[in-house]
Amino acid sequence: MFLSHAAAWAVGFMICTGSVLGAPNGAAPSGPNADVAPAAMRPRFTAEDIQFTPGHGLPSLESLNLTAVELVEQALIEIENEEKGAVASPGAIGPLTRRSALFCGSGKDTLYRASTRACGNYLNALGNTPCVVRQRACFCLITIGQGGHYDAVQIEGIKWADALEVSSYCRHVAHAVYVQEEACKENTLRMWRGREAAYGNAGLMVFSYPDTGCRPF
């Protein structure tokens, strides 16, 4: 059974302090600025550990020939390479950010960066598929559970314009997710909740936060 929103926040605190999902068997790197674990120490997940929920009406992972484990493990590798300086983050600050609505939270309410990146990669894989919002819309939910602890990341879109509905290409929603994951990172493992407009569309605001209920609105 997944945790309530409030309970998920409490778990987020345990994760922030390095007790969950930092490394195999709960042995996370010490210190808030600990380096990403080398490949041999990277967390290992099974299909039972990860629950992926696509947004209402969006394609399944199976239709993209992907699994939830592949999605999260690829995200871990990407973040590791970026932290080493081997490649640039897809959320690196660019000219558009100067006109953006970027906002990062603070405090103990943090998200697992790999889950956020995995949602971004899923949405990016959808390319020009429209991500449509009438009031609010869940685009992606990933819940990872190991050892009785759960860590959830939800990507949600909210209409930010006076219109019946707003939409952007899903890859443009992914851009907003990438920007948040880079700009709002606390350390190599965790990030604060964030908000950013879909690429080129101030009328569609994209939020990342810990939740376990991907509900169609």
TrEMBL record:
Residues 1-22 form the signal peptide. Keywords: Signal. This is Uncharacterized protein. It comes from Podospora aff. communis PSN243.
